[in-house]
């Protein structure tokens, strides 16, 4: 690797010097059971094994990339390449398999090159960065060129040292992966914790003691409607799927509908053409579950903004909701302001009166409400919930005081979870960097520095990297290509 100072005992070469790139088709009996690997089954993690489906060889040998046990497999197309989809091929039925045509196959020149070393090489950050930078093709379907793979720097390492490096990488990276798994499990636990908080909030358990104290203090005069300047809401018509949420509300709470509590602001038709400047445009892509993303950054011209935003403007504290598509159900609070443009497939809920929108925002984040939205959505390719259907969905309606109390308690508990999540994400970033740090040390010879001092006889003479490379070239030269037959 030209810019890396690897040990003097190693020899600079390229991947094509130590491995075949996309070797020829495998010759096997048609009815041989083999492994089939679509791109979806290729692992991303360093330590995950390659999964496969069993198929007859005659079904997959022609139209798919062929490989065998001991090969190294990796994706060449975006975004699978950037995601690091790769594996050492092992455990296939009868030792052979085929998979996506978007795979590259590296077959190490055995017994002088180990697949573990090639696999580690293509998992380095340098290979990922340089490969992405050299991609060719149209946007959305870019691929890493074969010439890049063949010419990529790969040091020839004495075989005894390769075995030590492979062993050390296996041990160290397994520890890293285990730490990463624990951190990711912690993130999943935090998600479950938030949902349990929301469930407790909407079942009234979070404020059960508070409610008893409030009733004791205020008596039966404690009412919801006194602090709400709209018509007295009536109990929503409860259908079978509405029971998912309604049955969990405390009996002391009233039940209303979105249409009685909120003004709906939506925008129909096609969003005007984007502009380089003007008013900031927020689309369904910006509205995530629980927050508003700055990506992508888009604008509408001042004139288009005036013509488009005829149904009204959002205000701070309003609720944003995505009505259709793969992000249907995503909900966020407006923390930006009102001088913004909103695209189609977004819905703004603006309270008619004195409501805690944050309370209803938390209600909309519950898994029960999200399931209710899913049940009331229509369509197949791009499911969506119609505004009329959404308006009739049931909404919990406790007293305004309890709404504020619940929102405050949820916010406090979420803040604690957010602080923990931030620490876990920082630790996760460090762990991800640690993997690359270990790989970089391996290819600088740092993992085996003391081993080389203790075992000079295993890296010199016939065991040297230079001798191994000569053997590879000699063996390749001895294999004469078959002459082409004339018809």
Provide the spatial order of strands within the biggest beta sheet. 1-8-5-6
> How many strand elements?
19
Task: Report the β-strand fraction as a percent range.
Answer: 5-15%
What would you call the structural class?
alpha+beta
What is the CA-atom radius of gyration, in angstroms?
Answer: 31 Å
Low-confidence stretches: 220-238
Shape: elongated
Give helix % range. Answer: 25-40%
Count of alpha and pi helical runs: 17
The average pLDDT is 91
Largest sheet: 4 strands, antiparallel
Protein topology:
Elements (H helix, E strand, L loop, with lengths): L14 H4 E3 L11 E5 L15 E4 H4 L4 E4 L3 E4 L4 H4 L2 E3 L7 E4 L3 E6 L6 H8 L2 H9 L12 H6 L7 H44 L5 H11 L24 H4 L7 E4 H4 E5 L12 E4 L4 E2 L2 E2 L5 E3 L1 H7 L10 E4 L8 E3 L7 E2 L3 E6 L5 H9 L1 H10 L10 H5 L2 E4 L2 H44 L5 H6 L10 H14 L9
Parallel strand pairs: 2-7, 11-17
Antiparallel strand pairs: 1-8, 2-3, 4-7, 5-6, 5-8, 9-19, 10-18, 11-14, 12-13, 15-16, 15-18
Helix pairs in contact: 7-15, 12-15
Essential attributes:
487 residues; alpha+beta
Task: Please outline what is shown here.
The protein has 487 residues and is an alpha+beta fold. It contains 17 helices and 19 strands. A hairpin with an 8-residue loop joins strand 15 (319-322) and strand 16 (331-333).
How would you describe this protein?
The protein is an alpha+beta fold and 487 residues long. It contains 17 helices and 19 strands. Strands 1-8-5-6 form a four-stranded antiparallel sheet. It has a four-stranded mixed sheet with strand order 3-2-7-4. A four-stranded antiparallel sheet has the order 10-18-15-16. Strand 12 (287-288) and strand 13 form a beta hairpin. Helix 7 (159-202) packs antiparallel against helix 15 (400-443) and helix 12 packs across helix 15 (400-443).
């Amino acid at each position: 690797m030209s810019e890396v100072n690897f040990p003097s005992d190693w020899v600079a070469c390229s991947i094509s010097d130590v491995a075949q790139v996309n070797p020829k088709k495998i010759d096997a009996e048609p009815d041989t059971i083999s492994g089939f690997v679509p791109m979806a089954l290729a692992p991303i993690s360093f330590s995950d094994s390659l999964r496969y489906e069993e198929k007859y060889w005659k079904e997959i040998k022609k139209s798919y990339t062929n490989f065998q046990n001991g090969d190294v497999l990796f994706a060449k197309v975006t975004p699978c390449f950037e995601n690091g989809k790769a594996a050492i091929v092992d455990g296939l039925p009868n030792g052979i398999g085929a998979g996506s045509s978007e795979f590259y196959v590296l077959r190490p020149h055995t017994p002088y090159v180990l697949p573990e070393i090639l696999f580690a090489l293509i998992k380095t950050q340098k290979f990922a960065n340089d490969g992405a930078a050299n991609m060719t093709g149209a946007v959305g379907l870019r691929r890493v060129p074969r010439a890049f793979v063949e010419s990529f720097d790969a040091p020839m390492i004495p075989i005894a040292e390769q075995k030590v490096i492979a062993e050390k990488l296996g041990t160290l990276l397994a520890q890293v992966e285990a730490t990463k798994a624990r951190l990711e499990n912690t993130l999943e636990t935090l998600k479950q914790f938030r949902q349990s908080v929301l469930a407790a909030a909407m079942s009234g358990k979070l404020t059960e003691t508070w409610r008893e104290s409030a009733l004791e203090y205020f008596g039966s005069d404690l009412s919801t409607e006194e602090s709400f300047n709209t018509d007295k809401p009536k109990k929503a018509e409860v259908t079978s799927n509405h029971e998912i949420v309604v049955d969990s509300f405390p009996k002391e709470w009233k039940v209303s509908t979105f249409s009685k509590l909120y003004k709906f602001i939506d925008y129909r038709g096609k969003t005007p053409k984007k502009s380089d400047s003007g008013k900031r445009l927020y689309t369904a892509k910006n509205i995530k579950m629980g927050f508003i993303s700055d990506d992508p950054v888009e604008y509408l011209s001042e004139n288009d903004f005036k013509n488009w935003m005829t149904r009204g403007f959002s205000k701070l504290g309003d609720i944003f909701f995505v009505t259709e598509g793969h992000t249907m159900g995503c909900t966020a609070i407006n923390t930006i302001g009102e001088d913004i443009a909103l695209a189609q497939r977004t819905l703004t809920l603006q309270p008619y009166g004195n409501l805690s929108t944050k309370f209803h925002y938390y209600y909309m984040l519950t898994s029960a409400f999200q399931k209710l939205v899913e049940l009331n959505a229509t369509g197949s390719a791009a499911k969506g919930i119609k505004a009329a259907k959404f308006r009739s969905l049931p909404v919990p309606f406790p007293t305004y005081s309890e709404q504020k109390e619940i929102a405050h308690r949820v916010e406090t508990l979420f803040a604690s979870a957010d602080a923990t999540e931030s620490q876990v994400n920082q630790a996760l970033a460090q762990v991800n960097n640690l993997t690359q740090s270990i790989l970089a040390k391996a290819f600088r010879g740092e993992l085996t520095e003391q081993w080389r001092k203790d075992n000079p006889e295993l890296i010199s003479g016939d065991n040297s990297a230079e001798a191994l490379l000569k053997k590879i070239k000699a063996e390749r030269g001895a294999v004469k290509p078959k002459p082409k037959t004339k018809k």
